[in-house]
Amino acid sequence: MTKKPFTPPCGTGCAAAQMELFPAPAVAPAEPPADFDWDAHDRVVVGDSGGKDSGVTAHEVCTQADKAGQLHKVRILHCDLGRTAKGHLVEWPGALEVARAHAEQYGVPFAVRRSQRWPSLWDRIRAHGNWPGHFARFCTSDTKTTVGRDYIDEIGAELRLGRPPRVGYAMGMRAEESTARAKKPVVERHRMSGKGTLRVVTTWLPIHQLTTEQVWKIHRDNGIAHHEAYDQGMRRLSCRACPLAHTDDLVRSAQLNPELFAEYAEAEADMGRQFKESISLRAIIERARS
Ligand code: SF4
Fold first, then answer.
1. How far apart are CA 126 and CA 243, in angstroms?
2. DSSP 143
3. Which residue, judged by its Cα, is nearest atom 2 of ligand 1?
4. Atom 6 (ligand 1): residue with closest C-alpha?
5. How far apart are the first and last CA of the chain?
6. CATH of 38-232, one of 3.40.718.10, 3.40.50.620, 3.30.930.10, 3.40.50.790
7. Looking at ligand 1, which atom is closest to the CA of residue 144?
8. Does pLDDT of 84 surpass 90?
9. Which of 113, 145, 215, 229 could bridge to 234 as Cys pair (CB 3.0-4.6 Å)?
10. Residue 15 Cα, ligand 1 centroid: separation in angstroms?
11. Closest residue to atom 4 of ligand 1, CA basis
């Protein structure tokens, strides 16, 4: 972990939900940030992966909360994705500590939670017998969204309001990242609300309008912690091996994480399923060595 100022070499970025995804729109929309109704919510949870967009999301939420006298409502949640069978962290080592540093910087409670069903994303993938993909996002739904929902229920039990808790869920998705993300509303009711009898959850994307350059500027201006993988050439801080990541990032990650990629390549051969539609892990590793 480091706090060194850093300007990334390109204009692409990653978000808390961590996806490479679709061609990015040429220009990020310049819509003004939608107002978030603090009075209408009992708590606001920031999903923090330890990535750069998470850091700026924590900054925006906590800064707005402080101005509104509502900082006591904010919680920062890191979803721990666990380890592989050989004991390698699925995430980048140190990502959790960066997320914790974000919470410490703004003086808000920090929580780490893991899926109650799956010991790790690795176990989930092996049980599924295939890799996650654009149309099979069981990774985020089972190890992030469900974990966030359970944490919100935990908060609701603590609050004992005698009614469903009303919780904001802030994430670092940005319009610049993809056409699909550009279309997302900044504030909307989350589907985990269901009929609203257990919980009412509002999704909030407080940095939706920011460009990658602006994200890094906010980091520099406010001394927000970022992960050292960015300084080593990574453009995204997702799972160390994500089938949805750009191949160039995977090649760089394979150079930085050879043992993890070797284990993933063994799983690729064992499951008989190519890691990424366009390229196998074996080929990624070969490119990393060349
Ligand atoms: S594999 Fe990891 S980084 Fe990739 S989409 Fe799934 S949870 Fe996100």
1. 14
2. I
3. 239
4. 139
5. 28
6. 3.40.50.620
7. 7
8. yes
9. 229
10. 11
11. 242
